[in-house]
Amino acid sequence: MAAPSNRMKKIPGTLEKTATHQQKILRLNGMSAIESCTRTEGATGTLFLEDHMLLFVLEGVYTVRFGAEVHTARKHQMVLIHKSVAIQYEKSGEPDSDYTLNYIMFFLKDEVIGEFVRMADYSASAEADSKSTISVHPIDDRLFSYLASLQPYFHEPERVKDGLVKVKLLELLFGIADRNAGFLFELSQMKRQARRSIADVVEANLANPVSVQDLAYLAGRSLSAFKRDFKAIYNTSPLQWIRNARLDQAKDLLAHSSLSVTEVCFRTGFENVSHFSKAFKLKFGFPPSALKQPSLPPTSS
């Protein structure tokens, strides 16, 4: 089992910049697609979705965790995830297929989804709003074959016209909607960015290294409105409150777990060990390493 990745990646941006030989990318204005094929007995990490994601598993297992929810997709299944959420993933190949993991991710911006919903002439005005952030759907043999037929495009992306990628994507979406009545409804709901409780958003993302601007987006507010509403609730700025809450959590983990200083740093949303250590000492009066030394166990702030 591979060691967990504590640093959160923002995708598709991070993956587009750090793609490896195991990943192939197609880009189009309004969307991007990434095909990944590797062998692994287990890999974990955290992602912050900048766009809506549609992930198709061609081989292996892909598990997504969002809060208390756990969703697992295997071969012949797909996962639809709304944008602007932080998720944990675990992915691996199956033992009987030499641990091969093969999947395709499509990242869709609101305008592409809106265009497709208009083309499908679909209106969900009479239906209740969807509350699902993540859903898993089956894909039949015909769609599975269609996805396999797209893989050659990833190997020569420079020869693929933008228009062709868009046509292929729209054809894929129509194919899914034709076989899955709920899929089109879910897509029609994805553009609706509701205002969420600031407390819920902050609590859910306290351990994730997201920016205040990311938190504002997650809460369905402008940055200025988020800061104003946050101060009305907590009587301080988001940066100060979140830093103190993370440091309190870090102190508890250092004192009551076997995690190292580095592990605690990333586990509590900090991205730089040096910065974490300085902030910790400034707040508590001693370095985080002191709590890992039995002979020097400061316990009060």
From TrEMBL:
<dbReference type="InterPro" id="IPR050204">
    <property type="entry name" value="AraC_XylS_family_regulators"/>
</dbReference>
<dbReference type="Pfam" id="PF22200">
    <property type="entry name" value="ExsA_N"/>
</dbReference>
<keyword id="KW-0010">Activator</keyword>
<feature type="domain" description="HTH araC/xylS-type">
    <location>
        <begin position="196"/>
        <end position="294"/>
    </location>
</feature>
<dbReference type="InterPro" id="IPR037923">
    <property type="entry name" value="HTH-like"/>
</dbReference>
<dbReference type="Pfam" id="PF12833">
    <property type="entry name" value="HTH_18"/>
</dbReference>
<protein>
    <submittedName>
        <fullName>Helix-turn-helix domain-containing protein</fullName>
    </submittedName>
</protein>
<dbReference type="InterPro" id="IPR018062">
    <property type="entry name" value="HTH_AraC-typ_CS"/>
</dbReference>
<keyword id="KW-0238">DNA-binding</keyword>
<dbReference type="InterPro" id="IPR054015">
    <property type="entry name" value="ExsA-like_N"/>
</dbReference>
<keyword id="KW-0804">Transcription</keyword>
<keyword id="KW-0805">Transcription regulation</keyword>
<dbReference type="InterPro" id="IPR018060">
    <property type="entry name" value="HTH_AraC"/>
</dbReference>
<dbReference type="InterPro" id="IPR009057">
    <property type="entry name" value="Homeodomain-like_sf"/>
</dbReference>
